[in-house]
């Protein structure tokens, strides 16, 4: 039984923008230009001349710049109209320039841009598109990207340092100005800047330049764009601190993101997808084969072709294939063409319908039973078999769907089995076999004949076969030593001299390969057979019926086989009943396990069983058992043992159970910080008369063996601590009691008194003094005193001293907690002169320890709301701080030595009394 099948061969032809160079019409199945070529077979109908998408981003490849860019570190604004998108500076790089941060050649022209990607130092690029991006409109960005590490390690340039992938992100906003955010981080980290994330794509590191795309649909009109890295960088990325120091896993090898050729426009302007998809369903065998195609856009025009010639009316995205078209047996190529916005894409598939699928299987019978194995041997020339259905007994029911199968037959006799197979093209075939599965397993047997006069043995086959098969092979092993001694249905051999007991083996095999084995034992005539000496308990009754009780006795026994041949057995006896039962015990204390140990002596053999009677109604069959006695007193314990020779002995002893110590520990007192006391146990009635051994264990791990030890319990925490102890008491008989007392003392916490202070002078020389409590958290009351006079019970009081002068002030603080525990502290505060500051106009950071830092000098304040920045003549910030004690060391923003020059300083200083900030500015000369 057979059906024809088919196969697909796919090929892809992708190009854009149909152009007609002759009079050939490409979808009418007519040779319009008379050159003998029709439709797609004519070169005039090739999809060609791809549409060029204009970018909405000005200067998308950064090829327009102000001058020859031999050194453009941080000079992105030279590529007009691009500007910096952050306070950090994106680089404009030239392929033959000084900076070699990106691999050459660049994807488009001689220029590209690069951005350092460091925590606290992320660089971004900003630009305004040629026209506003419209809300709710789909856009697409195609660009080239590169992500690698730049810099040096030990003077060697970085090369393929392992870094994690990150996202390239597009940010946008719709307000009137493009000005990039003044931040070292993500554009969205400045809420007032109104930047939003539009879209992103993952950038893979260390793979060179490659093209990628981002698709997005803004929810509002967009006037300005920023490009750069994701906001939150991976944990493995380095960090740059306020002093421009870089810390990370690769030192100064830092991640660097490159961009080039940014083509942005509405998504529809890019035309249909170049990855046109073709799939199928159904099959030619079932005459329901349908070809389906899918493009990235749901609009456009479709046309199907057969061997390059248009199928008239086939203008949908699917095509029904007619089985009749393949009557000639030749393969057919079908082509789908999709046209959208003047651009087109084609995709081909070739279908062959000329081969067979053949169902076939083999039946394997089992020798040992009625297990049938079914082995699939089906084939198909084109395609793959994907479905199997087994009907074991052809009753119309599918019993299994595996490729190979098997079953236990329900009865003897003939069986008919059916297999149906289907391939991936839907083609089907059936195979049916009938067979007799009766078992061919033989049953081995043989008869034995001995000749008492000659000493020979004759072995004759008596085996039988199953329902099928014939006996074909016989293998004799005369002495069952694993060696084949003879073949054939009979065998004759002479045993070795002196051998009376013999074991022989026969293996028979049928013509179907089924085999069986049998081994038999029998006796021969011979001299007396001496069995090894046997050791046993006294006495022993042997098979001759006599009782033997003396060492080195000899017993004999004669056996006559059916052939009348006699064999005499001789047994040498060695009697031994030297067995002595002994045991001891440990732990004879009330309510504790008493351990019994068997110490018996056995002269010959091993003890195999034990029977214990503990004298309180309990028993055991273990070798070394335990028993817990609930009451004091003396008990009779008995042990009975039995050896592997059957020898038995017993012993009993009196065991006295002693009492355990009865003790108690009383609770003691409470106090602040530490409690020292002498501990004394209370001996309760009902225990032993003497307790010679004591062991105390204290909370810190210390121990004592004194009856009344001393110990100090100390609390160094901020909360109450309850302490306990452990006590072990051991009687003179070794019985012990472990007593755990979880709480005997409560030690209250002692608070920790602490404070800090701040002061400010106002313009009237009035002094404001703030006392700030920094005591421990458990403090509940405060007592402040200034110059020994009570000031306040507030937690952190403030006072104003009018028209004061610089002097020392005595401040004392006493605190207490809810337990009444107290602590105090006393300090003399040194009050400096009233508030003032001045700013030097020059400094020389040459490392000589003199005038190396530039910073304002303040007096009369211990804290101040203040900031300062240093700006070079190009308007770049080289230093900024909000710390009164931090000064400029003469480095620029890249942590290099700034050049000798005059710099502008700008400082905002808050009035100490009103808090209103005032702006100050001036110049400072850096002298090298």
Secondary structure blueprint with pairings:
Elements (H helix, E strand, L loop, with lengths): L4 E10 L68 E2 L6 E4 L16 E8 L2 E2 L2 E3 L11 E12 L1 E2 L2 E2 L8 E8 L22 E8 L6 E7 L7 E6 L9 E2 L5 E2 L6 E13 L10 E5 L8 E5 L6 E6 L2 E2 L7 E3 L11 E9 L2 E13 L1 E2 L2 E5 L5 E6 L2 E2 L4 E7 L13 E4 L6 E9 L4 E8 L10 E5 L6 E5 L9 E7 L8 E2 L2 E4 L7 E10 L4 E9 L5 E8 L3 E2 L5 E2 L4 E8 L5 E10 L3 E2 L2 E4 L6 E6 L2 E2 L4 E7 L5 E2 L5 E3 L4 E11 L4 E10 L5 E2 L5 E3 L1 E5 L3 E2 L9 E5 L5 E2 L5 E5 L6 E10 L5 E13 L6 E7 L5 E7 L5 E8 L2 E4 L5 E4 L6 E10 L4 E9 L5 E3 L3 E2 L13 E3 L6 E6 L5 E5 L19 E10 L6 E10 L2
Parallel strand pairs: 39-43, 54-61, 70-75
Antiparallel strand pairs: 1-23, 2-6, 3-4, 4-5, 4-16, 6-13, 7-12, 7-16, 8-9, 10-11, 10-13, 14-15, 17-18, 18-21, 19-20, 19-22, 22-23, 24-27, 25-26, 26-29, 28-30, 30-31, 32-33, 33-36, 34-35, 34-37, 37-38, 40-41, 42-43, 44-47, 45-46, 46-50, 48-49, 48-51, 51-52, 53-56, 55-59, 57-58, 57-60, 60-61, ...
